[in-house]
Structures are given as C-alpha cells and as structure tokens.
Amino acid sequence: MVSLLAAAVCFWINTLLLCSHALAASLQPQIPSIASFTSAGDSFQLSPNVRIIVDSAHGLEGAPSALSYAQTFRSDLMSVAGFAHVPPVEVLPGGTGFAGAPVIYIAIDPTMQFALYNGEPTLEGYDFEITEYTYTIKVAAAIGAWWGAVTMLQQVALTAVAGGTNISLPTGAGSDSPGWEVRGFMLDAGRHWFDTAFLSELCIYASFFKLNEFHLHASDNLWNPDFLYGTGNEGWKDLYAAFRFQPPPGSPIDGLVPRLNESWPENEFLMFQQTCSEHGVTVIPEIDTPGHSLAITQWKPELMLSGQPDLLNLSYPATIPAIKSIWQQFLPWFTSSEVSIGADEYDASLGDAYVSFVNEMFGFMQAEAGKSIRIWGTNEPSTEIISKNITIQHWDFPDADIPVQLLAAGYNVINSEQAFLYLDGKYSDGGVYPYTLSLDLMFSGAPDGGGWAPNIFSPNDPSNNTSPNELHLRGGIMALWSDWGNNATTMLEDYYQLAQSLAVVGEKTWAGSGMRASELSRAEFEAAYPILNAAAPGQNLNRVVLPEYGDVVYKYPFTYNTLTTPYASVGPPYTLQFSVMPDTHSSNADFLFSGEDSKLYVANLTFEATGQLYPLGYVLPVGTYTDVEIHATADYTYAIINGDEGNPRYWYTVMDIWGEYMEVANMSFAAPAQQIGGEGFVGSVKDVVLTLGV
Q1: Among candidate residues 135, 156, 176, the one where a domain is terminated
Q2: Cα–Cα distance between 465 and 172 in angstroms, integer?
Q3: Which part of the chain is the Glycoside hydrolase family 20 catalytic domain (predicted)?
Q4: Mapping DSSP to helix (H, G, I), strand (E, B) and coil, where does residue 218 land?
Q5: Domain termination site, one of 125, 157, 176
Q6: What is the enclosing helix (H) or strand (E) of 327?
Q7: What is the largest CA-CA distance in the chain?
Q8: Residue 669 maps to which CATH number?
Q9: Are residues 479 and 570 in the same domain?
C-alpha cells in the first residue's frame, strides 16, 4: 500500500512530479528513465476492475512465464495503486478495454527485436501503447513483459501518491530497452550474516529499479594481520570466517560450516532464487578461492599456503580437488548460467599457478554444470593467459587489471570500479567510500563532467574509459562490503546504505549518461526517488506500518507481564516509551520487547539484532519503576532514562579496522514491536506507547 510517507513526500516535491490525478502531458520522470514516449493527448483511467490479460499464444512459455510475471504484477499493482482487489489474470488471444473496464494486455511477439547499446540483441526490451481504455505491453519474451510492467507500476506510484481509486495515465506510445546486459549489485555475505528472508526482500526491491543481477559473495573472512600472519601465530584459527551454503548432514564437506545457524539450507536458498527469478533478477553466487579462503583452511589446514592461512596452496595435490568437491556439492543448487569463483588478491609471485587454476576451474564448471564463470580483476604476472571465455569483473586501479586493455584483447568485462561503486558496511577506513553512492560522482563524476555509466572506469583519466557501445562491455555491478564483520551493522542498516544506491545504479546501467535525451537529471532523480522508495511493492524493508491513530502505532496504558501486538517490527524514525519494574526473579536473558528484527533484553538494556548483542550499559533497578524513552532514526538509537533529556544514552558498536585501530559507531534498530515481555520475564511493564517520529 502506498504509505503516508509517500503522501508527505508528494506535498514537498517540485513540479517535475505531479501529485494530482489530473491528466499529465507525458509520463512522469521515473527510475530508470524510459528511452522514448510520445503523448497522444488523452488519458487512460486505471480502476480496481482493470483486467490483466496475457497473450495465450506465448503467455505460458518460459520460466518464469509472462503469466507468472503478470500474476506478480497484479499483486504489486494492488499495493501501489491502493486497490483492495483486482480481477485474476486471464490468458486470452487478445484484450481491449472499454469505459469502466480498462485492460492491461501483455502481447508477446517473438519476432520483435531490441538491442543493447553495443548492438547485441536483448529480450529485456518492450514497447507500450496507452489508449483511452487499453494499456498494451508488447514484448519478444516474458522478461520484457516484466520490465514493461515495472514501468507501469512506477507511473502509477508517481501519479497516485496521494491515494484514490481512479488514476489517470497519459495516452501515447513508447519504447524502451536496457543499455547493458548486466545491471546489478553485490552484497558481502561472507563476513556478515544475512538470512534469506532479508535477501529476498532486497531482491524484490532492486527489481523495482530494473536491476537484474544479485551477486552474492558467500564466503570470506575478516582481515587482521595480527591473527593471520607471523611465525608460530595460531590466531587465524579463531578469526571470523564463514561459508554460507549449508551442506546436508553426512556430506563429506559438512565440516566446512561450523555455524549452521548462519548458513543457508538448500530449500531456503532455492526459494530465495525463485523469488528473485519471479522478479526478473538472477542470483550470481560466489565462492571465493584461492584467496579469501580462511573458512576452507580452518576446515582443512593442510590446504593453506605456508605463512598465509587465508590463501590456498594451489601446488598441494589435494587443494584443487577439495575446491571442486565444494562446488560439486552446491552447483545443483544454483539456477544461474554463470557463477563467480572470486579469484582475487592471491600471491602475485604465484601467477602461473593462479592462471592455471582459473582456467582449470572454467573447464570444470563447463563440464560439470555447463556454467560460465567470472573472476574479480587482478594482476597476477604470468607467462600463461586467462581464457577469454571468462568474464573479468574490474574493481580497482592500479592494483588489478586495466579494463580498456582487457576489452581491446577481447575479454568480456563488468564494471565494479570502487571509485564509483563501492560501499562498506557503515564505516569506510579513511573515508575512501561514501555511506551511499555519491550522487555527485554518479551524475557528474566523469572526466567530461557527465555522469557515471558502465563505460566509465575512471573519474579523472579519459584514457581509462571506453564507449557505451563497446562490444565486450557487459555492464556494471555496485558492491556493499562487510569488512568489519557481523557487529558493524544490522541487516536493515545495510538496506539503508543500499536503498538509494540501487536506484541510481538502476538508472545508470539501464540508460547510462549522455546516450539518451530522456535520461534523468539529478533533480529529477532526487524528486522521484523518495516516492518510489516508499511505494516499492512486494517487500517492506522500511518496516512501514499504518498507525492506529495519528502518529501512534499503539498505546497500552495498563500493566503487563506479557502482551502480543499486531505489529512485527516498526522502522525508524520512532519513539518507544514505557515504564519497567523487574523483580529479583527476572533473568538477564528475559526480553522486555521482541520483534521481527530486534529484541530488547532486561540485562543492561541490551538490543539484539542480526544475532549480535549491543548493551546500553544501564542496569534497571529492581522493585521500582524506571521510565524509558527509546528514540531511533536510520542513523542512531538512544534512550532517555527517567526524563533526563540532558543525558541521552546511545547504543553503539565497536569495529576492528584491519586490526589497526577500533572505531565506534552508532547503531540503528527497528522497534521490537511484536511482543511485550516474555521468555520468563518476571516483573511488569506499563504505559507503553509506540509512535512514529523522534
């Protein structure tokens, strides 16, 4: 449902976006922008009795099919438009609406042709025609129907911000297709735990901005030289390292995953991939070897390179068979035609062994599962040559590859250049990376003053950039790393960093910079983004709730030991007020409040989120009431105790930065709104009020 936040945003945006239901001269600027649209000067009236019809000739072909996408679209349309019900999707030879009964018709013609900027064909394009009673999406394949449907959803959101049951869209005709094949984001799940429920919501959100790949970095370790290196040093055995795919019981590699509660069972991972696929997004799993491999050497120490336990010894006879055995266990899980083997930051003195390994893994993946591979760009001097069938994902100057040289040599390249596209969980060592992707860089950071696009690798050296129509340039992927581990962020805090970043990458990898007259200006992007973020359907990463009255989510003025509420979690900004009196029989393990994303425990007023504990350090007195106010924004959470507003107490975390120094940072928690008291809590809580805003 379109939230009250969207309505508030609508009031303040500039005239680039119209918030009334009056006829607009053209489509609203959306993210990503569409290639072309010519208005016909009339209006299409969308109403709850709209029929969604899929072409029967080809509507059931493919997986997902156009019918499957249309069914997801129907649910999303109800959410975005605020309709309580829309008729079920129909499969018919055609469809034309009439007054009071509009039609959305998905027509599939496999002979239609769309092209990327480099001239390569794409199935992701679509044409659309809007008449007074019929909105037709014309595509060559089912995936084009999905992106065409997303375009309509965004137009509905931008037009219907203030709600209502009748929504007008301008009539006319348009055409759209992406500039690049790969449009995605990477999340470092090797050094931070993310459950598949969160990952699925993130996939759905990214799809709303027409991103089509989710690169999942699923194995890695923290980097601390004091633990990893040095003669006789055994600290590496205890340094945090994780491998996230959970082997079945009895598997020969089940010792690889000691933290089963921080790993994905097969059924959960398959469901996650299916959810992404139903929203046009492919999951690209990464198992990183032969570097970043401490999780493997903690399992089998004999595989490590002497003196470097996070690197695998490729010359040891059992090493490559062990890596292949890991992939053999999980390849049947992966539905993508391509996987990443990582292969970055290895020992440069072992370049021949490294290149031989990469090429051998390519042959293995082809023979074992018919899959292609990607590697991170790296510089491993060698007399051998990496196969040109392998895609190189560029990320760094000058320590890694030179992308224009790779492209000229015939390698396929994906742009993940850190100067534009890297984030780190909450904190950046030395301020190298921004908190969210810089709009200054993304809209004007190219050497010519234009914005970033996948063909832009350097903000200051034009010789390192190429043309948008470069044949071997596949696209771009932004990255959010988790260098500081599990305790640096909650899962929702990672979403806060990604939310706007995904939208701007969606614009720039679909439309680019300087290729289309219809591309968004920064002002248009900043006007459209808050509305689309609030309206994005199929997930609720903002943890938005509709309050019972005014800004009050709930108010319980009586005394409780245990109480369940209708709300699982409430996102910031919020204020949670209550009075609490534990007695002598209350355990420190008892929680005061519990919800989908967090818990608040009696002991030291400790928040738990993403499996980590964050104590406030305040001990509640026994046998007397303490008044507590918790205030939270997306940047911090603090408590006011007994009305002492001059002494706010903040929840924070302490991060170990490369083993060199410690960094303190504030924590943001969603309100644990679902249950008051529980799990043996002895005492009472009264006067509980949860309101929106701080």
Answers
A1: 176
A2: 37
A3: 182-511
A4: coil
A5: 176
A6: helix 319-330
A7: 81
A8: 2.60.120
A9: no
Residue for token pair 């659309």 = 128
d(Cα 370, Cα 350) in Å, to the nearest integer?
A: 28
b/e sequence 21-52, b meaning 16+ C-beta within 10 Å = bebbeebbbbbbbbbebebeeebbbbeeebbb
Q: Which two tokens stand for residue 400?
A: 């890694």
Q: How far is CA 679 from CA 585, 586, 596, 598, in A?
A: 13, 10, 16, 15
For 84-131, how does the pLDDT look when each residue is reduced to its tens digit (9 = 90+)? 999 999 999 999 999 999 999 999 999 999 999 999 999 999 999 999
Provide the token pair at 92: 């018919």
Cα-based distances in Å from 332 to 28, 326, 328: 43, 11, 8
Residue of 181, 278, 345, 493 marked active site: 345
Q: Which amino acid is at 523?
A: A
What pTM value is reported for the model? Answer: 0.95
* Beta carbons of 502 and 207 less than 8 angstroms apart: no
Query: Coil, helix or strand for 276?
Result: helix
Report if residue 137 sits inside a domain.
yes
Q: Which domain holds residue 97?
A: 4-176
DSSP state of 240: -
Asked whether residue 168 falls in the same domain as residue 235, the answer is no
Q: Output the pLDDT for position 584.
A: 72
Q: Are residues 198 and 156 in the same domain?
A: no
Q: What's 209's domain CATH number? A: 3.20.20.80
Domain assignment present for residue 521? The answer is no
Backbone CA torsion sign across 544, 549, 551, 557: negative
User: Token digits for 171?
Assistant: 């009539």
Q: Has 345 been annotated as catalytic?
A: yes
Measured distance CA(636)–CA(206) in Å, rounded: 25
The DSSP output letter for 552 is E
Rounded to 5 degrees, what are φ and ψ at 293?
-120, 30
Q: Which amino acid is at 8?
A: A
Model pLDDT for residues 371-401, shown as the tens digit of each residue = 999 999 988 888 899 999 999 999 998 766 7
Query: What CA–CA distance (Å, rounded) separates 594 from 600?
Result: 6
Residue 338, Cβ density class (10 Å: 0-12 exposed, 13-18 middle, ≥19 buried): middle
Burial class from Cβ neighbours inside 10 Å (0-12, 13-18, 19+) for residue 335 reads middle
CA distance 386 to 459: 28
Which tokens sit at 338? Answer: 């391509």
